[in-house]
Specification:
InterPro entries: Aldolase_TIM (IPR013785), OxRdtase_FMN_N (IPR001155), Oye-like (IPR045247). With 358 residues, the chain is α/β, with parallel strands linked by helices. Helix content is 32%, strand content 16%.
């Protein structure tokens, strides 16, 4: 498949895309202290609206869902109103934008949640440390969620989806990857439950399936996507049976009419990617991993399309290259991302990456 096929218009559910390039969700920690998007947020996304679709940074659905400082929220009317400027900026530049809905579960210190204890499938702390403004601290032991608390959290995902659509977003995405709450339900190491929310593969995928369906009931399935990271093993999530788990999950959701499935490819697991592609009859978005030397985006994109992707999701490349679509079309050159400015700070490393024509 040629590189130019990346620029063929398409659709993902109800969202029309002018090309097949997607900007991945990336935490930037530049919201206000109370979780509102800013004018700078709007400009950041506007600059990158050459993507057919932009997926926003992870956005917490409740105070308890927050894991990191100065990340945005979508659980109050004020939050929703602050996002309207972002939607207007992206739409004005001719692109589409979905809001990623997030719950950190056991990840993050209580200081991130106003003193609230972390909620998780079981009372098992995540390994390692977590960042706070006061420095790195150990992850605290979470409180095991009751059945009622699980159901309430699923309703919060639905409520957040409604707020997002009310703010003008074209769709919403469940962050079911990277060791956060939905992913925590998948791993036996952090989910020791013996009720209907654990144990078997069907029990462990139940939270993700029911959260996606609650969001779909709220705003329509063709406005909902799901991000997953099979076999990633991030933040202490040991899936213990990846093929069975995701086979169960995709089998449950494949006929639901979702906008797309967003797969973060694990290192060395193109075989798994191809298997998931065969199991999913809808739009398949791939955030590809290259095992060899890092390849430039104009090589990564056609490789992902050749592997069966309908959409190609890139992260750091969009962060450092606001005009990445044009650079891919020309075969480069590309700016390098500066990790020192990834999280928090000023416009430096946020709004000042140079364009091709300076």
């Amino acid at each position: 498949m040629s590189t130019t096929s990346a620029f063929t218009p398409t659709t993902a559910g109800r969202t029309r895309l002018r090309n097949r390039l997607v900007m991945s969700s990336m935490t930037r920690s530049r919201a206000t202290a109370d979780g509102r998007a800013t004018a700078e947020t709007a400009e950041y996304y506007r600059q990158r609206a050459g993507a057919g679709l932009l997926v926003t940074e992870a956005t917490q659905i409740s105070p308890r869902a927050q894991s990191y400082p100065t990340t945005p929220g979508i659980h109050t009317a004020e939050h929703a109103a602050s996002w309207e400027q972002v939607v207007e900026a992206v739409h004005g530049a001719g692109s589409a934008v979905h809001l990623q809905l997030f719950h950190g579960g056991r990840i993050g210190d209580a200081s991130m949640r106003g003193g609230l204890a972390a909620h998780a499938p079981s009372a098992v702390a995540a390994p390692g440390k977590t960042y706070t403004p006061a420095g790195l601290v150990d992850h605290p032991a979470p409180v095991a969620m009751t059945d009622a608390e699980i159901r309430a959290t699923i309703r919060e995902f639905a409520d957040a989806a409604r707020l997002a659509l009310g703010a003008g977003f074209d769709g919403v995405q469940l962050h079911g990857a990277n060791g956060y709450l939905p992913h925590q339900f998948l791993g036996r190491s952090g989910n020791t439950r013996t009720d209907d929310w654990g144990g078997t593969a069907a029990g462990r995928v139940r939270f993700t399936v029911e959260a996606v369906r609650a969001m779909a009931d709220a705003v329509g399935p063709d406005r909902v996507s799901l991000r997953i990271s099979p076999a990633a093993g991030l933040q202490g999530v040991d899936e213990d049976g990846t093929d069975e788990l995701y086979g169960e999950m995709l089998s449950a959701l494949d006929d639901d009419g979702l906008a797309f499935l967003d797969v973060v490819e694990a290192p060395g697991r193109r075989d798994l990617t191809l298997s998931l592609r065969k199991s999913w009859s809808g739009v398949f978005a791939l955030n590809p991993h290259r095992d060899a030397e890092p390849a430039p985006p104009h090589e990564v994109v056609p490789d992902a399309l050749a592997a069966g992707a309908d959409l190609v999701v890139l992260g750091r490349a969009w962060l450092a290259n606001p005009d990445l679509d044009r650079r891919i079309a020309r075969g480069g050159p590309y700016n390098e991302a500066d990790p020192a400015t990834f999280y928090g700070g000023t416009a430096a490393g946020y709004l000042d990456y140079p364009l091709l024509e300076g």
